[in-house]
Amino acid sequence: MDFKSSDTITGPRAEDHLPHTAQAAVKIVIVGGFGVGKTTMVGSVSEIRPLTTEETMTQAGVGVDDNYGSDSKTATTVAMDFGRISITEQLVLYLFGTPGQERFWFLWNGLFEGALGAVVLIDTRRLEVSFDVIGRLEERGVPFVVAVNDFPDAPRYPMEDLRAALDLPEEIPIVKCDARRRASSRDVLMTLMRFLHSIAMASASA
């Protein structure tokens, strides 16, 4: 491609540069079914402009994608979402949001490479979508926490009822969140980091 003299090539924005104090980086994956809020969570909490791979939904997905409860969605993630957040001056989390439709789940294998842990985002209107997601994490041995995204029209259940429905062991944290709010999404990530720390401490003392 030929560039004109008037063309301007720019690099990353100043705010996108990794802080010079960063000493450790951790890869975290945000997973869940279609329309549960993964892209929203990455976008709300990321300190850099998030990378998204959303495409407009077309008639090709009719009868293939289960969008019950998400009828108003007009776009969907087809590869991944990416963001970054500094938990402390030394610790940075790289966030990878996975595509929700089952036909794109083959991409999960690459996204999970090197991941230290995961957040499973769920929608109580479509709880059954989470079963296969959790099963895949358990098969891979990836530690995870469960975050219940608080949709306005979603039914609300006691946490212990949700734990029983999802067949979650007592040690796996389950929390409520609003993926649209930065503070709420950050709290979910902090819950995951505390859980990963507890696992590491238990392994060290074993």
Automatic annotation (TrEMBL):
Statement: the UniProt record of this protein carries the keyword Nucleotide-binding? yes
Concerning CDD domains, the annotation shows:
Ras_like_GTPase
Q: Which InterPro entries match?
A: Gliding_Motility_GTPase (IPR052705), Gpn (IPR004130), P-loop_NTPase (IPR027417)
Key words of the record: GTP-binding, Hydrolase, Nucleotide-binding
Which domain of life does this protein belong to? Bacteria
Q: Name one Pfam family in it.
A: ATP_bind_1
Family indicated by similarity: Belongs to the GPN-loop GTPase family.
Protein name in the entry: ATP/GTP-binding protein
